[in-house]
Amino acid sequence: MTTTVERKATNVHWHEGEVTREKRAEILGHKGATLWFTGLSGSGKSTVAVAVERALAARGVLSYRLDGDNIRLGINSNLGFSAEDRQENIRRVGEISKLFADTGVVVLSSFISPYRDDRDIVRKIHESGDLPYLEVFVDCPLEEAESRDPKGLYKKARAGEIKGFTGIDDPYEAPLSPELHLNTAEMTLEQEVEIIISTLQEKGVITKG
Q: What own/partner pairs with CB < 8 Å and gap ≥ 24 does 194-202 have?
């Protein structure tokens, strides 16, 4: 699988504005960052992201969730689930996350993103812009995720109605060194949120309190 993207546009140049990232952070009262939630379908990625969004709002921190299904209903509606389309799906979301983070928003990107190479692309996108990026591994045993099956997708995959389903007939490559590792089968949602908020404080993205 290739990890590079062919640039077709020519004679294009980045146009720098006059309002700095620091000024935007001053206006908002916090910095921007991307939290990338990765894990199996049914692992609890969206549940944690929703709870973190609520906790950040209570602290006066502007955040925005980018969710797999929501993105595929809109900007990425032309992509399927082949390895190539999944890679492009994640690349686009990585670029969107970078733009949000650059404005000063705390981005909560929740995607299965099963391949390490694809997630590495997103990390490099943020590193190139000197933006905080935290990979959050929402770790859940396959048996537990399958028993939850909130969308009935595992059942369809087992019946052969869905091909290339992550965890069944397509691999999930777990992160090797994520910034945060949440064992959802062992932790409460409150504990997960507390760890994430504390990490954002330690990283200086948001202030304590």
A: 196/35, 196/48, 196/52, 196/136, 197/52, 197/55, 197/56, 197/59, 199/134, 200/33, 200/106, 200/134
For residue 155, give both structure tokens.
């059942």
Q: What is the pLDDT of residues 11-29, one digit of tens each?
A: 676 677 789 999 999 999 9
Catalytic residue flag (residue 110): yes
Minimal CA–CA distance to 194: which of 176, 204, 174, 208? Answer: 208
Distances (CA, A) of 134 to 120, 143, 167, 191, 203: 12, 26, 23, 17, 10
pLDDT in tens, 35-56: 999 999 999 999 999 999 999 9
Q: What angle do CA 53, 125, 96 make, to 5 degrees?
A: 45
Q: How far apart are CA 108 and CA 62, in angstroms?
A: 11
Cα separation, 5 vs 208, in Å, equals 40
What tokens does 85 get? Answer: 């389309």
Q: Could you give the CA distance from residue 151 to residue 113 in angstroms, rounded to a whole number?
A: 18
User: What predicted TM-score, i.e. pTM, was given to this entire model?
Assistant: 0.89
Catalytic residue among 46, 63, 109, 110: 110
Q: Nearest-5° angle of CA 89, CA 90, CA 93?
A: 90
- Cβ atoms 117, 44 nearer than 8 A: no
Q: How far is CA 152 from CA 1, 50, 54, 142, 196, in A?
A: 29, 21, 27, 14, 29
